Fold each of these.
Amino acid sequence: MRETIMAAEALARRNILVLTLAQSLGAAGPPIIISLGGIVGQMLSPDAALATLPVSLYSLGLAMGTIPAALIMRRFGRRSGYLLGAAIGVFSGLVATLGIVLAAFVVFCLGTFMAGFYGAYVQSYRFAAADAATGALKAKAISWVMIGGLAAAVIGPQLVIWTRDAFPAAPFAGSFLSQSALALLALPVLTLLRTPPASSAPAGAAHAANGRSLRELLLSPRLMLAIAAGIVSYALMSFVMTAAPIAMVGCGFTVGEAALGIQWHVLAMFAPSFVTGNLMTRFGKERVTALGLLLIAASGAVALMGLELAHFWISLILLGVGWNFGFIGATAMVTDCHTPEERGRVQGVNDFLIFGTVAAASFSAGTLLTASGWELINWLVFPAVALVLVPLLWRLPAVRAT
């Protein structure tokens, strides 16, 4: 019995290592799209108002890809699904590169939209790490895999710098070609993944062998709170982060100063992952999630104190740390709300709701900033945080008693 437990833990740790490396490669693509999508959009778009459409389409593809990705992984297993996702990532980078070479805005947008489908698989790596883990290792597994995002936060921007002028006749084509190369490198890494076989039961069945129906799951207050915490943490981060560089430049700061603020923000998003798992083990998932939401609210408060460069940078750093605690904590809460038979449906719906909301936030941030200003963007943080923080704090005594 002891040997079996030790073997299972060794397998879980192996999977965590594989997924962390895959995360560092897969999550390095979005910074390329986010940092260059609008610039390339300005170059190729027939209408200046559509310049940020490629970035928004990435978020839309990510949202639309979550349910199909969950169904494919449920039917064929995680490893097969992840290999398919990486193949889509390779193809999406090539399509985006072709769009730049041909100066075809629609083709470029198609490439960034397809990249979102690859992102849907990458986002589920955190769940795959937790699937085979048990006890304290389950919470730490999610946090450890997210450390791969810290490497990605360095890899993505550096690739932009190294490759943006690789083809003088087609500026930035080299950067999107490197995005394709990252996905290609992820393929051999993902072949090392060893996960339990997919369930053969039909996805929509509600009998006991296949767990509760989707309707029953979504009516669970515990799961609803966990999903809501993930939605608020991620959507607010995306909403404020999208608007921040525009607001900084509008306040007279340089593009370089705005970019540096975003870099510190991204580092703050992933650097705490070294301790987030231990914090959840010691203090509980709900408390860490609540702390994350409080930090997101604090970022809004700092932003409202003034328009100096320090206000923007400190706000963005707090926003990044708050996202880390809130989103990882919420993810760990979700893993406690389903059985192995139910996880495909729960994880797919969780990510669909989160990234669907993130896509809406991405589309609306620029418009709202232009219409109403940076101040309103940050005032909207507080009611959204309160909507989840109040019931989360109300639940803490019940968590302590279990």
Amino acid sequence: MSQIDLAWGGGPSGRYEALAAPFRPLFKSIREGAVSRDVERRLPYDEIKALRDAGFTSVRVSRDFGGAAANLPELFNLLIELSEADSNVTNSVRAHFGFTEDVVNSPDPERRELWLRRIGAKTFFGNGHSEIGDAKLQAFSTTVSSKGGQLILNGKKYYTTGTLFADWINVAAQHENGDPVSVVVSRHSPGVEVLDDWDGFGQALTASGTALFKDVPVEGNRVVEVAERFKYSNPFYQLFHLATLAGIARAAANDVAALVRKRTRVFSHGNASSAAADPQILQVIGRVRGNAYAAGAIVLKVAEALQRAHEAQLAGDPDRTAAAIAIAEIELDQSVTVISDLVLEATTIIFDALGASSTARNLGLDRYWRNARTIVTHNPRVYRDRIVGDFAVNGTPPPGQYRIGTP
């Protein structure tokens, strides 16, 4: 059935249903194994390979390079559907789509063709950006330096989500000349070690742990100045999280409705002879579903702002690009707290429609709140309302790119 038939609203384009149709059987298969993977802590190697083989990871690439030329609203709607299947898998492909977006927007035709061909050939990318411990706010501890005419990478990264599944790793580092740069290294080079040591209580299957680099050769001796990366990267990466949250809420809504439909036991102080006819239970289901619907609708609205920023960047108009990105940032910031609250509430109150049996591990309902709560911590909402308020009252533009570290 279409998204409209399921009452999740129309897709972001007239061709969306045709674009999504080939992937939906795969999403269904991924969803069927989601609970057992969570309980057994099995990483989604096979699921990510299946997405690659099906062309999902190249969907943003133009047809010339083997992709489907999806626009950004179409991509983010697909991500909601994937997250409805398993939010761990969506989080694991976030770095890949971020690198793809960077390449799609690259002003360097040689770089663009090199990597788009590889992405179209179903190559998969991981990341190495964040650093923990005594990492500095102003500079990366990971470095790029020259050795025998070859640029090499040394350092340690954390939150390297999806990198364990990757062929290539896009790494942010400090060049020996002092500039922050981005480089690509092979996941399989000697000197690369990726550890599955992420121990968060949610999103546990994303391999978001440590990556170590020791004298790793930089592909093609190429560095990209951080300032040259695609300009709307911050709202792009953050919207990825919001799409994941919207998919989690949709999955929770579907599960709780199905469980209430099958429930035969009722409480003596309830309102009907079946849970499916109890108006108070139905009210809970409606609230969960309404929250999921609203979260998805907001994600698609922000994706439209990102599409405008992308088009402005491709047009090569710096003033138009800066204005479009600032608005996309504000639209994103306006959405973070709202979507976070909607999804955290939805994944909490599903249990109010069920009995104590709903806490059984084999149902896996707890994973929705755990995953949502974990994602929300990666998308710090405590600053967002202030940024939006400052814009509304004082016209202050959003801060743009930001990092975390010791001052």
